[in-house]
Amino acid sequence: MPLPVVLSDFVSLLFPRVCLACQEPLARGEDDLCTDCRAQLPYTDYHRLPPADNPLARRFWGKLPVTHVLGYLTFQKHGRVQHLLHELKYRNQQQVGRVLGRHFGQELVGAGYADTFGLVVPVPLHPRKLARRGYNQADSFAEGLATALGCPWHPEALRRTAATESQTRKNRLQRWHNVATVFEAARFELVAGQHVLIVDDVLTTGATLEACCAVLLAAGAREVSVATIAVA
């Protein structure tokens, strides 16, 4: 056996790399997610449906024109997806976002989305929250997606102008009022004429993403689409 392989195996025994989803040690050749989790994660596959048949798109019907609504995984309480989101959002495991973004981006390329988007934009955090947490969990997902799709991403195309209360216990109308006027375009030259893909960690009612899409369209975006890691 070649010496580099022996050394790699020895290091893996001392400091085993674990799957981001289930925390079990990764086998040789596995990268970030184990083979079992890659097979068992609850994929939505909505990106394979025509837009008119996509149930996620219905959350935006009659509100504003959103071209594609894309959600990678189905959120399940106490499951692998909740664990991944918790690691990303609260434990600074930004690799989770990059890995899932890259995998989803590769899926989208395979489904014909390779040349669809001109810019990927993460939903921004308010500066105070960003300073407190130290990072925006949507940034790493945007980075992974953009890398796989072969298009740019920019974390400052949108700005959050006011801090808001948690959306967790609010209904759809309350969520909309909570975020309706808290975003503004910060880099008009990046957005103008582009098909912008706005991304976040979870799609629930869609109120936050809807507010961001409205601002991007008003700033001159040619089209807007939405992508999230998970769908609740």
From TrEMBL:
InterPro entries: ComF/GntX_DNA_util-trans (IPR051910), DZR_2 (IPR044005), PRTase-like (IPR029057), PRTase_dom (IPR000836). Residues 164-229 form the Phosphoribosyltransferase domain. Transmembrane segments: none annotated. It holds the Pfam family Pribosyltran. Residues 11-43 form the Double zinc ribbon domain. It comes from the Bacteria. Belongs to the ComF/GntX family. This is ComF family protein. The lineage of its organism: Bacteria, Pseudomonadati, Bacteroidota, Cytophagia, Cytophagales.
